[in-house]
Specification:
Chain lengths: 105, 288
């Protein structure tokens, strides 16, 4: 860094800053990828007959935010929806055997 | 030494194979499905948990769990809130379809006093047939549109049919057909399986916590819970079918409800009705 001229250093800082701000703002592409992953996980939960209402609500919130151009919020919601869908898949899978623990015998 | 090692190795391999085989067997094969033993254990669980409640009183749901509520209910029964549905159901039941036939033509004994035999397992179809499903099939077979499974018309019809069976013991049969036993077992699995974001099963409320409050309500015991269907619920300000009860239970625990009369709901009604065999039909019921 000792050899870096002040002008070059400024360009570098600006580049890094713009990259960070682009990441923070979230892009439409990033939202689309996050939404597709969440939607796929929710469909998987559907195959297991165990979708959660909260997943559907969070997916809807993601879409609404994206329609309003707020891709930050939209991406965050889509990621939350994916986490919810994955939790419902885990629940359905583990309950395949765990239900017996509750059975009256 | 070589022979001894070979024998040891072979024994170990055999033991491993046996273990692998045992663990690969479906769980159902390890636990024999025994509905008679299930029903006995089910009744024992509730009568042990609530020794003061008579067996036949469990059909009165939360009213059997709480003395104050019981008194309120007795007062309410003077002018029961389901009465209007009962009258509507009686009229609907007698009114001929466009082709001149009536519901009575679709059911044994003209549909009177038969509620306690539903749901039943249809060996031709290989599936459970509930009363609500049978009513809509009757309509469709006579050229009429089916009713919504969660609305007033279906509740009124089933209210009237339940009323004609009041006091008769629930009498659900499981025919000697492996598919019937499978439907029963799947119903049991559904009943005990946790679902929804709240991670509740039907049993969480109706086995683990009957008599306890959930918000302002007192939870009903699972034993005899279907004997009181359909019900007038003050919370709904109206009548609710069994389908409505199942779907709203699901959404309350943040699970996306299935479609009314999907196999899962038919099977769980079959299971719950079977384990309540012998308890009287008390429907239509009224609930807070």
């Amino acid at each position: 860094m000792r050899n870096v001229k002040p002008k070059s250093a400024l360009v570098l800082v600006l580049l890094v800053a713009s990259a960070v701000s682009a990441f923070a703002a979230g892009s439409e592409e990033e939202f689309k990828a996050a939404y597709a992953a969440a939607d796929a996980a929710n469909k998987e939960a559907g195959k297991l007959r165990n979708q959660w209402t909260t997943t559907a609500n969070t997916l809807a919130a993601a879409k609404k935010a994206a329609d309003a151009g707020d891709f930050d919020k939209a991406t965050a919601s889509a990621k939350e929806a994916e986490a919810l869908a994955k939790a419902s898949i885990f629940q359905a899978t583990s309950e395949k055997t765990r239900w017996k623990d509750m059975e009256i015998r | 030494m070589k022979l001894r090692s070979a024998i040891t190795l072979a024994s170990a391999a055999l033991a491993l194979a046996a273990l692998t085989l045992a663990s690969s067997l479906p769980s159902g094969a390890a636990d024999k499905v025994d509905p008679v033993a299930d029903a006995k254990a089910f009744k024992k669980f509730f009568t042990d948990k609530f020794p003061k409640v008579k067996l036949e009183d469990f059909v009165n749901g939360p009213y059997s769990m709480n003395e104050d509520l019981y008194r309120q209910w007795q007062d309410k029964e003077q002018f029961p809130p389901y009465e209007f549905a009962l009258e509507m159901g009686k009229e609907m039941f007698a009114k001929p379809f466009k082709n001149g036939k009536t519901y009575a033509d679709c059911f044994p004994n003209g549909g009177i006093g038969i509620r306690q035999n539903y749901p039943y397992f249809d060996e031709k179809e290989g599936k459970v047939i509930t009363l609500e499903l049978a009513l809509n099939r009757c309509r469709e077979a006579n050229g009429e549109q089916p009713y919504s499974y969660v609305r007033d018309e279906m509740a009124a019809l089933t209210a009237y049919m339940a009323f004609t069976s009041r006091g008769k013991p629930m009498d659900i049969k499981i025919p000697n057909d492996p598919r019937a036993l499978e439907a029963y077992e799947k119903g049991k699995e559904y009943f005990y399986t946790r679902r929804g974001q709240l991670n509740f099963s039907c049993a969480t409320c109706h086995v683990q916590s009957p008599g306890e409050r959930i918000r302002a309500e007192i939870l009903a015991p699972a034993l005899g819970i279907v004997n009181a269907m359909p019900i007038y619920r003050s919370e709904w300000s109206g009548m609710g079918t069994t389908s409505r009860r199942f779907t709203t239970c699901n959404s309350q625990i943040r699970a996306v409800p299935l479609s009314p009369q999907d196999d899962e709901y038919r099977n769980v009604e079959y299971y719950l009705s079977y384990v309540s065999n012998g308890l009287p039909i008390s429907g239509p019921g009224a609930r807070p």
